[in-house]
Write a structure and sequence with these properties.
Layout (H helix, E strand, L loop, with lengths): L6 E5 L12 H13 L4 E3 L12 H15 L6 E3 L5 H14 L3 E5 L8 H12 L6 E5 L1 H4 L5 H10 L3 E6 L4 H11 L4 E4 L5 H7 L3 E4 L6 H12 L3 H19 L3 H11 L16 H12 L2
Parallel strand pairs: 1-2, 1-8, 3-4, 4-5, 5-6, 6-7
Helix pairs in contact: 1-2, 2-3, 3-4, 9-10, 10-12, 11-12
Length: 292
């Protein structure tokens, strides 16, 4: 699929069985349900996909299953970032060879790398493939903040960095990206509660874990904005916002997997040490989901 990526992309959760083994059938079912909900694309092995708890072999397996089940119905972006450039390049080459439409690369994490080292990481990974690259800014987890200035420089230096997923939660930075660098890079905002605001501001779309749970509803908001039906978009969003707020108010993956269980599409537990959400949060989320 050679196309400009835009719209609502699901940050695909990774289903596990009760022994925390990869649940292939659960993953296939989740992918098909999400596509049936009208989603514009899928992003496996991201943060919602618990990539840091997967082995390299499992990450490749998850992507292959998602690509097979998707069967070219929507674009698939593989998250291939890693703690070393070597591993990220191996995963990125595998993604391209397997048929992924693009790769999303989280900034290197754990080690406090310099900006020069981070740029080198992106330059080397992007240079190893011919498909587009989405830079993934998640400073709370990586310790590296890809500011608009840094991303603007990176786009000039690395031609196939075409997209950015900004999950900084800093709407000022997201707006600066959209308005100052929007001609060179398409901006996807990944902070759930900023979904509508980002679309109003002109974002290309969102990569969002909530799409595992409410794909139809998020796409309806997106479609209303694109059609200029702003009052409708705001009304639809007003019903979704409490759910989005619940997701970001505690452990995010616990919220997504807990919500899937509540609506009858269990994706199993998180891998330890991740735990299920507590009963108070479950009760609140159940109430919000029932109000849709």
């Amino acid at each position: 699929m050679s196309q400009t990526l835009k719209g609502v992309y699901s940050a695909v959760a990774t289903p596990f069985d009760t022994n925390e083994a990869l649940d292939e059938q659960g993953l296939r079912s989740l992918v098909s349900r999400t596509i049936d909900g009208g989603i514009h694309g899928l992003v496996p092995c991201g943060s919602t996909g618990e990539f840091a708890a997967l082995t390299q072999g499992e990450r490749k397996q998850v992507l292959e299953i998602v690509l097979d089940e998707t069967d070219n119905r929507v674009p698939v972006i593989a998250q291939t970032g890693a703690t070393s450039t070597r591993e990220a390049i191996e995963l990125s080459k595998h993604a391209e060879a397997s048929g992924a439409d693009a790769i999303m690369v989280v900034a290197p994490y754990y080690e406090p790398f310099s900006i020069a080292e981070v740029k080198s990481y992106y330059r080397d990974i992007a240079g190893s493939v011919s498909i587009p690259v989405m830079a993934y800014n998640l400073p709370a987890a990586t310790g590296v903040n890809l500011t608009p200035k840094i991303l603007g420089e990176l786009v000039k230096e690395v031609p196939n960095v075409k997209y950015v997923k900004d999950t900084s939660g800093d709407f000022t930075a997201a707006a600066e990206l959209i308005h100052e660098f929007g001609n060179n890079i398409s901006v996807f905002v990944g902070w759930d509660t900023l979904f509508l605001a980002a679309l109003f501001e002109g974002a290309a779309g969102s990569v969002i874990g909530a799409a595992n749970v409410v794909p139809k509803e998020l796409v309806a908001v997106y479609d209303a904005v694109q059609a200029g039906r702003l009052e409708e978009a705001h009304f639809l969003w007003s019903k979704l916002f409490p759910i989005m707020d619940s997701f970001v108010s505690g452990g995010y993956n616990a919220g997504i997997k807990g919500a899937l269980e509540l609506i009858g599409y269990s994706a199993g537990p998180q891998r330890a040490p991740g735990q299920d959400m507590d009963e108070e949060r479950r009760t609140i989320l159940s109430k919000h989901l029932a109000a849709l």
